[in-house]
Structures are given as structure tokens and as C-alpha cells.
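ok so i was messing around last nite and threw this chain in just to see what happens. nothing serious, just curious
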Amino acid sequence: MADTVVNEVLCFIQNHCSTHSRDELLTILGGFYHGDEILEAKMKLFDVVECHRGSAEGMPRLITRKQSNDKQKLDCQDLLALMYFVDGQKLKLPTFAAANLRRIPPFNPSDADVCCLASNVCDLRNEVQSLASLSSVVKEVTSIRKELAEMAELKKSVDQLKSMVLLHPDAPRTSSMAHDVVTVDTNENRDGTRDTVPQPQDSTSWAATAAQDLQQWNQVRVNVPKQPRRPVKVTGKKTADVASVKGVPRKPILAAYVGRLHKDTSEEVLTKYLTDEGMRGVVCKKLIAKDGKKFTTAAFFVSCCPESSDLFYDEKCWPEGAELRDWIFRNNGS
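result:
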């Protein structure tokens, strides 16, 4: 190990660490020296004391700090921690000398005013770095505010355009800027057509387009396919006196699909069962499975007179587990 090592930072610390507190030295180092000078002194001191690592228990280990706003402060703390450890263990160190006396602080670390000034300079430097990192955030916020303002202006213009369309439903609706507009469907009219409202693509303001003279607008209609009309069904009610023209009214019945019965149930057995329950005009037809399908239960088409509706829809008149629902008649010819 060399007897003399040239390093201004270590020279300053070696001459003051035994007489001044760690906080005072930390303030001076952070305010006077640059980050690369602190890092160089830290690496050199760890190289010098590496020969004592086996004999000195608890010696701080070398930590490589990542780049951040607090990197210089953390390197200073690592440097002072090792120097105070060596001083406390009475380990032999070389004499650290200064080749450039201008890189030695020209004041005593115990001078409170100077320490305060150095601390303020260090804090100011950190604040400037923080403001620099916030510049990108400020730009993003400004961009977002601009986009929100444009969206608010667009919503206001669209609301004005809707109001004008509602107040003047019969006014012509073609702008003089015919080559700069496209049409968008609005509400359907009674005759099956739709009115289209021009919307500018290259115009800088919707409000400017909406404020144009309505008399210069023309109405554009788009044909909409009409829905097919349902066939008309009329049931005659006049009593005919002429014998040659008579109607045959449908007999009102109650019809239902009845399922979940035992597969051995027959039409005669079900008809007798419902008749015994008090229903009149009962007709039962057993449904046959199509396409060769097989079911474990039986189903029926069941009908009766409307006078028996109370019994027909009474769950107490049907066997437990049976299911009943109205029969739906479909007119396949229309």
C-alpha cells in the first residue's frame, strides 16, 4: 500500500473526520464537490482498505448506486460510513494529499453559516433537477387540456346544430360547401324516408356551418324499404237473412299442450279423467314423435269448452308433474 495517495476529497475528509460530525461533512461534500469527484473518492477508498477486510469485522461493503436525484448524497454517505469505520477501528491508512488546492473547501466545516449556505445550494440543485423532470409532465397536461377544450367546443357546436334541426324541420339542408360535406341519417319520416343532415369534414367549426343561411340548404331524402303489411283478417258479425249466404263461425275452445304424462296413458283414459274432473267437451289427441324419435313420456293435444276454463287452468285438476301450456295455432298458408 502506497504511503501517499493523491485525492482532494479524501484529503479533506481525513483532516476533518475526527474533529467534526458526519452531518457537517455530508453538507460540505454535497455542496462543494461534484458527483464524479465523490464517486472517484469512494472507489479509491474502498480499494485502499480492501486489504483490511479479512481482519476488520463489519466493514461496509461497496454498493453501486443507480442513477437518481439522490445518487450523490448516497455516495457521500457510503464514503463517510467507510471513513468513520476505519477511524473507529484505528486501521492504518495512507496519507491523502491534494494536488489541486482549489478543490479543497476554503472554510471550516464548523462554520454554521457556510454549512447552511452549502445545504441551501444542494437543496436548490435538487429542486432544479425535479423541475426539469416535471417539464414533460407539464407538456402532457397542456396537451390534454387542449384536447378537452376542443371536445367541449365540438359538443357545443353539435348541440347547436341539433337545436337548429329541431326548430326548422322543414328547412332546406344542403350547405353551399357541397364538396366538403357528407350526409348522416336522422329520424325516419312518416312516408318511410329519412332526412340527412350535412356534416363538414374540412371546416374548422361546426358552429360556423350550422350558422349558414338555412334558405341555401336543400332537402335530401333517402328511400327506406317499407315493412311488408300484415294480411287483414275480418270476422263477419252480420246476421244473414239470405239462405244462400251463410257463415260458419268458429267454435270457441280451450286448447293446450299437455306433457310429462306416463307413456302408457291413452286418449280414452285421459278423456275420462278430465271429464270426471268436471270439464265439458273434452277432446284428447296423443302426439306422435316425428323422425323416429322416442320419448319416455307422453304428450297430448287437449281441448275443452270455454265454460270449463276455471277447471282447465286449475293445477289441482291435473296429475302431479304434468305440464300444461296454451296451444299455439299457426297459419302456414299466409
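not much to say yet. The two ends are 111 Å apart (CA to CA).
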